[in-house]
Amino acid sequence: MLSIIPRIDEKPEKRYTGGLSRRTRITRKLTLIIPATILILMVIIAIFADLAWLGLPDVGLAPHDPDSGEITDRFLPPAFMEGGKTDYLLGTDRLGRDVLSRVIHGARISLSISMLVIFITAFIGTVLGIISGYLGGRLDGLIMRVTDMALSFPGILLALLLAVSLGPSYWTVVLALSLLGWAGYTRMVRGEALRLRESDFVAQARISGASSWRIMLKHIFPNTINSLIVMMTLSVGMMIIAESTLSYLGVGVTAPTASWGSMVSDGRSYLDTAWWMSFFPGVAIGLVVMSGNFLGDWIRDRLDPRLRQV
Amino acid sequence: MSKVLLQVEDLRTFFFTRKGMVKAVDGISFHVDEGETFGLIGESACGKTVTALSIMRLLPEPAGQVVDGKIILDGVNLVELDKKEMRKYRGKVISMILQDPMTSLNPVFTVGDQIAEAVRLHQGLRDEQVTEEVISALKLLQIPAPEMRLRDYPFQLSGGMRQRVVGAIAMSCHPRLLIADEPTTALDATIQAQYIALFKDVQEKTNVSIIFITHDFGVVANMCHRVAVMYAGKILETATTREIFKEPKHPYTNALMQSVPRLDQKGGRLYSIKGQPPSLRDLPPGCRFFPRCPIAEDICQQQEPAEVEVTKGHFVSCWRVQ
Asked: CATH fold of B1-93+176-183+206-286+304-322, please?
C-alpha cells in the first residue's frame, strides 16, 4: 500500500548548503580557485624563470636567453602560425629575442615591483590615514595637506626628476611609484577612521580603558581591511601599467631587461606586422590584473564575518 | 547607613563652542552608596549623559570640559587624575554601558575576544585564566551556553543578547561603579523587564553600585533606590524612589509624574508640560524651570533657589517648597 505521508527516516541526507544552488556554489569556488591558481603559477614562473639564484644560470623555465637573440630570427610568428619555428613558441621580437622567455623573465620585474609598491604604499597610507582620522586636530590637517600635495603632484614629473638624479633602475621605479602612491590609501583610510571613531564600539573600548594606540590597532584597523584589500587588488593593474609607462620613458628598468610593460610598448609600432610582440605580455598583464580583482573580491567576502558562513 | 562610594560635588561641565558656552552640567551634587542603584532621570539634553561622561572623563575634549567641582570615588578625586591614571580606572573601577547594543560591539571580533580585551587590559592573566574570566562574565549576565556564545560574532546575536554581552564586557573586571546610560531604551518591553531583573541579580551578586540614566519612570520605580531629577543641567530634586513617587516636592517632578500615562486612571488628555526646556547657551536668570512652572512667583524669576533638605535625604531646589 502506498502511503502519502513521507516517512521521516527516508529523508535523504542533505548537506547544509546555505540555501545556495549547486551552480552558485561551484561558481563561487571557481572564483577562488582560478585566480589563485593563475597568481601562484605566475609567481612560480617568476621564481623559476632561471635558476641563477641557485648558481645554475643555464637551467630554468625560460627556453632562451631573454636579453639576446638571433638577428636572423627576427619577427618570427608564434609556432602555431605559418612560418613559425617550434623553437620560438610565442614568436620573436625585432631583435630576434624569444617572446616567451621575455614574458617569463618580465614576470619577475612586473610582479615584484607592483607587489612591493602596493605593500609599501598601503602600509604608509594606512598608518597615516588611521592616525589622521582618529587623532584628528592639527596633525590631521597637516597630514591631509601633504596628501593633497601628493595627489596633485604630477607623478611622471617626479619620476623623471628621480631618474635624472638617481639614474634609472629598479629601485628608482619603486621609489617613484611609492612616493606618491600612498596618498590615495591615506584618503580612504582616513575616511573610514573618521566614521569608526564615532562608533559606539570605539566608545565602549575607551570605557574599558583602552589607549588610543590600542583602539587604532585593534578596533579601527581591522574594520578598514575590507576597503583596503579591495583597493590593493585594484591597484595591481594600475601599478603594472605605471611601471610600463616609466619603463617606456626610460626611467624604469633599462633595456634589454624585460618587463611586461616595456614589452607592450616595444611592440606597439609593429602591431600590424608582429602583433605577438605586444599581445602575449598584454595577456599576462590582463590575467594578473583580473586574478587580482577576483581574489580581492573573494578575500573581502571572507573577511566579512557576516558572509563567512555562506 | 552604607558607605559612600562616589561623591560628586558641584560639578560643572561646559562645552565651549563657536556659538558660545553651553552649560551642559551646571553645578550638580549627588552621592552614590556602595551597592546602591542611583537613578538619574530627566528629559533629553538635560545633561544626564554629560554627567556620565564627566565621571568617566570621556568628554569630547577640548570642546567639553569639567570646569569646576569634584568627583570623588573612594577618596580619589577623578578630576585631578592624569590620562594614564584615569585609564586604569576605566573598565576596572568604573564601567559604562551605552544605549545602543546594535552598535557598541565591534563587528569583526567574536564576543569572547571583546570581553577578553577588557580582561587583558586590566588583569595580568594567562590565556586559560582569561577564558575562565570571560566565561564567568557571560555567566554573570546569564547568557546561556557561554562556551558556545564566546565564539559568536555580534551579528549572530539578538539585540537583548548583545546588550547582555555589553553588560558582560562592562562587568568583566569587577568594577565598583557601573554607569548605565539608558541601556533599556533600545529594547522592547519584555526584554527590558528581563534586563532590569538581570541588573538586580548582578548587583546582588557583586555589590556593584549603579548609576542608572533613564527617562522612564517605570524603570526607575523598578530599579533604583534613590533618584535625582535633572533639568537643564541642574538637579532639581533628589530623594529615595519611594518618596519621589509618593510625595514629589518639586513642581517639575510633579509635572513629570503627571505626564506618565497610568492604567488606573481613565479618560481625559494626558498632561504635558507647556513650552520647551531653556537653551543651555542662554539660561534665564533665577530658577530654570520658571518659564514653564505652574506655581511660579516673582522671586523665581529673580534668584536661583538653593537646595534645601525637606526631610532626611530629600533635597529640593524650589522657592515654593521653602
From this structure: Rossmann fold (3.40.50)
